[in-house]
Specification:
alpha/beta, Glutamine Phosphoribosylpyrophosphate, subunit 1, domain 1, Rossmann fold, 6-stranded antiparallel sheet, 19 helices, 22% strand, binds 2-deoxy-2-amino glucitol-6-phosphate
Length: 614
């Protein structure tokens, strides 16, 4: 949700900043802009729409050479996505240029005060007032760092701010509260970015910043303080992926590339999870065996796709550990006065580690003395930093706005957590845990098999270009898969799509079924329970009313054949692990259908990759 870049060094700042914005564009693409410090003035350019519009503007009207600059790619909150509301915003005298990610909650008061003092504000944004406030401070004689510290003390809400001062050409100053910001550490140059993708082609050494910090970068130095000027330490780390991970690698979309990366991502997430003795080990987890034995309830909080991963986790955790699990949307969690105590384990699932709803939910949980475990893909992000324990998912950077490998690796982490708790609590025998681990370790190969059949799914997708509505059915762990399949289609194909628990259909939604309505059915594996047969009953009910069924069913399932208008085969895996293979054709279906409809798959309208506002 908004991408932010800052640079000081010997290179052309415009090039470094625009390149950084290209890598952050997945965070928002309502507008883009840059501001450079040159010859004692701020030179800026900003354009509504995608970064390409800004690049065209810069090609037509190049900015002067400069080694100091900031940039922004916007996901609009305050004010329409037009040129005027685009960042950077400048102070009254064009001395300070500033970009912002987040929401300043007391902006109306601050704006009224500025206007009463004669300031003319050009935009509808909350950001422009901060540019004016910082400029007032530097005009009073303090440096940009002190100015930023003072202004942060009066701001409420969530923000990452990055600013330059026309009269202090070798300094970029940034601040963060509840919004992401990392420093890239170079040789004779330094960088700022909403995430490391912004500067990964220049350096893989980064500095993680704590909450409520102000950071000043110059060519040769990085200084971090709190909002009152007291020095604080950042945490240095080395990024374990490189530029190639942030490129499309011959694919038309990042999303498609990331779908095809899933065998590797799942394998990486499983790597090193077993000790030499064969016991499950979760090194980074930081919860003692006693703390785990103490857990008598699990509450999973997450949003969107991560929430569906949480729904799958409920089946796994309850089955293997017999601990009751609740799954809750993070945006709803703290408003329902949840019952929490020290023996409740709150599991926050977040690909980005920055989702504001989830962050606020874990903060609430911690005030109630619950332990919080984060399942996260982004090293150094806020949610794992504020949690008691973490399991990283090792999917590598996910750039497509629609989550794919993020989801599958979250599932892996959830299974690992469930099995680990079962191991510690002794609710499952070691050989059973071992058997599930072997089944999990076979999953990357199974995903390869599904991907090898991509063309069949693409053909099915292209057949549905004229479709206005698609339903998804599942049961048990296949139900969240149906919800996830529907979300993918909504997000990138802009189609009405809904997922249902197959047994629930007859209680109302079946009224939606009409002649020719496509319904994708996630068919559970045949087993001792009645799931498979009950699913077939549900499929019969919709076929009887004219629906066209596309069934995802395991190899060798001949019973399903008479009920499938189209059949996509899945490798044979246990029902609890089936989401790891059944989700993949649904991702391929959505990606191909959206492509055939001519949509921008990686940057769907109205969305942003990480949602850092509540
Ligand atoms: C998934 O395709 C979405 N773009 C979205 O639902 C996402 O999963 C949600 O916003 C949660 O994000 P997080 O995992 O980064 O917290």
């Amino acid at each position: 949700m908004c991408g932010i870049v800052g640079y000081v060094g010997p290179q052309q700042a415009q090039d470094v900043v625009v390149e950084g914005l290209r890598r952050l564009e997945y965070r928002g693409y309502d507008s883009a802009g840059v501001a450079l410090v040159s010859g004692g003035a701020i030179a800026d350019a900003k354009k509504a729409g995608k970064l390409a519009n800004l690049e065209k503007e810069l090609a037509d009207r190049p900015l002067p050479a400069s080694g100091t600059g900031i940039g922004h790619t916007r996901w609009a909150t305050h004010g329409a996505p037009n040129d005027v509301n685009a960042h950077p915003h400048l102070g009254h005298d064009r001395r300070v240029g500033l970009v912002h990610n987040g929401i300043i909650e007391n902006f109306a008061d601050l704006r009224a005060r500025l206007e009463a003092d004669g300031h003319v504000l050009l935009s509808e944004t909350d950001t422009e007032i901060v540019a004016h406030l910082v400029e007032l401070q530097v005009a009073s004689g303090v440096d940009l760092t002190t100015a930023m510290q003072r202004v942060c003390q009066v701001l409420e809400g969530a923000f990452t701010l990055v600013a330059v001062d026309a009269e202090d050409p070798d300094r970029v100053v940034a601040a963060r509260r509840n919004s992401p910001l990392v420093v890239g550490l170079g040789e004779g140059e330094n960088f700022l970015g909403s995430d490391v993708a912004a500067f990964i082609e220049h350096t893989r050494d980064a500095l993680e910043l704590g909450q409520d910090t102000v950071v000043t970068i110059t060519r040769d130095g990085v200084e971090v303080t709190d909002f009152h000027g007291a020095p604080v330490e950042g945490t240095r780390y080395h990024v374990d992926w490189d530029l190639s991970a942030a490129e499309k690698d011959g694919h038309d979309w990042f999303m498609r590339k990331e779908i095809f990366e899933q065998p590797r991502a799942v394998a990486d997430s499983l790597l090193g999870r077993r000790s030499q003795a064969g016991l499950l080990q979760l090194d980074e987890m930081r919860l003692s065996d006693d703390e785990i034995r103490d857990i008598d309830k699990v509450i999973i909080i997450a949003a969107g796709t991560s929430f569906y991963a949480g729904m799958v986790a409920k089946y796994a955790i309850e089955h293997w550990t017999r601990i009751p699990v609740e799954v809750e949307l993070s945006s709803e969690f703290r408003y329902r006065d949840p019952i929490l105590d020290h023996s409740t384990l709150v599991v926050a699932i977040s690909q980005s580690g920055e989702t504001a709803d989830t962050l606020q939910a874990i903060r609430h949980a911690r005030t109630q003395r619950s332990r919080v475990l984060a399942i996260c893909n982004t090293n150094g992000s806020t949610i794992p930093r504020e949690s008691d324990a973490v399991i990283y998912t090792h999917a590598g950077p996910e750039i497509g706005v629609a989550s794919t490998k993020g989801f599958l690796t979250q599932l892996v982490a959830c299974y690992l957590l469930a099995l680990y708790v079962a191991q510690v609590k002794g609710t499952r025998y070691g050989d059973e845990i071992d058997e599930v681990m072997r089944q999990l370790e076979a999953i990357p190969g199974h995903i390869e098999t599904v991907l090898a059949g991509a063309e069949q799914v693409y053909d099915l997708a292209r057949e549905h270009v004229g479709t206005r509505s698609v339903l998804f059915l599942g049961r048990h762990a296949g139900y969240p898969v149906a919800l996830e399949g529907a979300l993918k289609l909504k997000e990138i194909a802009y189609l009405h799509a809904e997922g249902f628990a197959a047994g629930e259909l007859k209680h109302g939604p079946i009224a939606l079924v009409e002649e020719g309505l496509p319904i994708l059915c996630v068919v559970p594996p045949r087993g001792r329970d009645q799931l498979h047969e009950k699913m077939i009953s549900g499929i019969q009910e919709v076929r009887a009313r004219g629906a066209r069924t596309i069934c995802l069913a395991e190899e060798g399932d001949t019973r399903i054949e008479p009920y499938a208008d189209a059949l996509v085969r899945l490798p044979r895996v246990p029902v609890l692990l089936q989401p790891l293979v059944a989700t993949v054709p649904l991702q391929l279906f959505a990606c191909e259908l959206a492509t055939a409809l001519g949509h921008d798959v990686d940057q769907p309208r109205n969305l942003a990759k990480s949602v850092t506002v509540e």
